[in-house]
Amino acid sequence: MSALLSVSRAALSVARVASYKQTATVSLQWARLYSSGKFPPHTVINMPALSPTMTQGNIGSWAKSVGDELTPGEPIAEIETDKASMDFEFQEEGFLAKILVDAGAKDVPVGKPIAVYVEESADVAAFESFTAADAGEGEAAAPVETPEEAPAAKEEAPAAVSTPAAAAPTSARAPTDRIIASPLAKTIALDKGISLKNIKGSGPNGRIVAKDVENYKVPAPAAAPAAAAPAPGASYEDIPITTMRNVIASRLLQSTQQSPSYIIQSQISVTKLLKLRASLNASAEDRYRLSVNDLLIKAIALASVRVPEVNSAWLGDQGVIRQYNNVDVSVAVATPTGLITPIVKDAHIKGLSTISKEVKDLGKRAKEGKLSPQEFQGGTICISNLGMNNAVTAFTSIINPPQSAIVAIGTTDKKAVPSNVNEQGFVFEDVITITGTFDHRVVDGAVGGEWIKALKKIIENPLEMLI
């Protein structure tokens, strides 16, 4: 019976190791499995990339403590990204064994180990002395290699003793441009953002294996030039560049350098629009409170349905211009940390009261940094409204790629326009200046003009929004 029990335990151990190896391959994007003699089998949780532009983030707080049970879909930490604060939801069952990066840590690179979890609660105590070095930087926690790499290791040994010629270093790569690497090595390199062409393989025929990627040290970046010395007696304050400000700068620089844009400007009467707004608000009975911006969002969405070429994106790398059937309007919102563009989705089919409620909710949560990625990433056309600032009559704005158009709204102004009814020959109208910026790769000048014309017609005859 004892022998049978030992065999059963051995079989269970083999099955468990096989399961670990499969987990290491599948879950490597956010966590990596390790097994060593120093620590029980465990999984290292890395700093996740919670948005496409995220390269580093801050850890706002930990929702779990060491020893707590982890449940799939339950948040374990709040991560501050380049755009917002979001919950990092864990997708496995287990127990939090070690927190490697404390709450409040700033600029933690994506992929850096931040915590450790284990499958058995009894293993938690063994990780009290676990450090960041044990999470993959040292030999004590070498990653479990997949079964595909095991044969490569076995082939390596006899090659070293077969002949004197074979005794040459196995890391010498054949004279070819092709990079030979194991599947696990490729996955680790992708996870760490390392180019395989910079790594010298130690496997047979120069094959790159997992340990080569793990041991590779990324060269330190060149030192930044020293800041210019201030003029004698100058008074100034150096304000650190935030992650969000860096992303804004990068995207807008990309837009100005790569998008051949042009502008079209038009003065549009909003006299009827303002009367419609006042009438609707008077009968709302506190159910909603429409703003001019709410009505303009609806007008822009309808104009984009009538001239759909503007509601498109340039996807040059795919060889296509993507023309959208739905109109998702990105609304520029100023927050304490920078500009963000939450999205009113399907604005072309939503009622004015629904748009108004969504804009208020999105704007509030944007300023609190509580938007989820899908609420500010994407969009098919953008509106930027500085009309609330009475000093701004007109301005131009920069396209938010890959969108092809952005609409800048100035303040309302009084302007005399000809009238056959008034005995003086003119009347005063409420007028706003609207400036559209278009990507010429997608929207030709004539098409941009047609879109502005359609927008003008809808705004000056706002009852069309109700049809």
TrEMBL record:
This is Acetyltransferase component of pyruvate dehydrogenase complex. It comes from Scheffersomyces stipitis (strain ATCC 58785 / CBS 6054 / NBRC 10063 / NRRL Y-11545). Belongs to the 2-oxoacid dehydrogenase family. Residues 42-118 form the Lipoyl-binding domain. Its EC number is 2.3.1.12. The keyword Acyltransferase applies. Residues 136-174 are annotated as: Disordered. Binds 1 lipoyl cofactor covalently. Its main location: mitochondrion. Eukaryotic pyruvate dehydrogenase (PDH) complexes are organized as a core consisting of the oligomeric dihydrolipoamide acetyl-transferase (E2), around which are arranged multiple copies of pyruvate dehydrogenase (E1), dihydrolipoamide dehydrogenase (E3) and protein X (E3BP) bound by non-covalent bonds. Residues 180-217 form the Peripheral subunit-binding (PSBD) domain. It is found in: Mitochondrion. Keywords: Acyltransferase, Lipoyl, Transferase, Transit peptide. The pyruvate dehydrogenase complex catalyzes the overall conversion of pyruvate to acetyl-CoA and CO(2). The lineage of its organism: Eukaryota, Fungi, Dikarya, Ascomycota, Saccharomycotina.
